[in-house]
Target: TetR/AcrR family transcriptional regulator
Amino acid sequence: MGAVKTRRMPRAVREQQMLDAAVRIFGQRGYTAASMDDIAELAGVSKPLVYLYLNSKEDLFLAVIRREAAALTEAVRAGVRPDQPADRRLWHGLLAFFEHTARHPDAWSVLHLQARTHGEPFAGEAAAMRAAIVTFVTQLIAVAARDAHRDPDLPDHEVAGLAEALVGAAESLAAWANTADGIGARQAAGTLMNFAWAGLGSLMAGRRWSPPGE
Amino acid sequence: MGAVKTRRMPRAVREQQMLDAAVRIFGQRGYTAASMDDIAELAGVSKPLVYLYLNSKEDLFLAVIRREAAALTEAVRAGVRPDQPADRRLWHGLLAFFEHTARHPDAWSVLHLQARTHGEPFAGEAAAMRAAIVTFVTQLIAVAARDAHRDPDLPDHEVAGLAEALVGAAESLAAWANTADGIGARQAAGTLMNFAWAGLGSLMAGRRWSPPGE
Model:
């Protein structure tokens, strides 16, 4: 907004630049290999300033996870319009998810891979974000099932399992779309809707699949 | 097979005991926190003997990944009988997968979480196993689509995307079933079939889901 690049940038702006640089370095090199030197250089600031603002590599990584987790969950929530029918709510939610992960591949790599396996408190933050998305999807499915009025017996633990399956499928497709050539957000979302919705749709309509003759 | 516990156990048997202990320690504590002392103690051998047989913590971790990846892919392949109709092939494959991951939760934690994020060569081994399973599932879906003769235009990249979605959903449900109370392998497989098969089944029958009025 008309801000001029000077050395006397507000702290909040500088901090966001450091976080932007950190997302790229952590996402592309991994948490262990990432160095504060590289992050400072990419952000165009001195290393002592990074330490002054963000305290340590651990705190910087945690700040990155928190910022990117909030951005992703917010993008998905904003994509879903509650006044729409169930399939469109899901479609727009998935589209928002895949558009966000395609635009921010390094952030997705941090959240999906790096954050989960370098112990606490990182794994806890990543797990909390995932749990929030699973809860959101669980509610979408539960409301859709109630709207459909066809399967009042769809038990809670089954709805929870369906939400876990959907989130896992979306995670897998996001990683695939970000590495395969020419797979866009729209195509990934379309593939997942064709995989999931007709399946969920059949369930809502009371058409279950049953194990063969058992 | 009538083997007697003695100090003069064959090397191959001792090695398997060390690998068994390593799976538990790596799976429960994570790669970084796992110590060779703990692994040797759990295996009931001296630490020098672990180094003599397996060389280093890195080599031991790699040996664990290779053994457990081979066991999981073999279990899934063995579960699928090629003479069955497509839905049963998928059902038995999923059941074999969830039964294996439920019986070997530490091995699943090593393959799904630990192996993927501690750099090479571990990530490469885990990725190779996952790619082999995705290829296997891709072939299952392609054969099912061909058998159905309904959607000759299901393009290769869409089949690949469906396989990625299915594998991601299965990974997510395996982690969920191993942590949620009272969710057995059969229930996880049933939930995924109800999520996936009716969806894939609709696709095979040429009933696609399309984005709304766009």
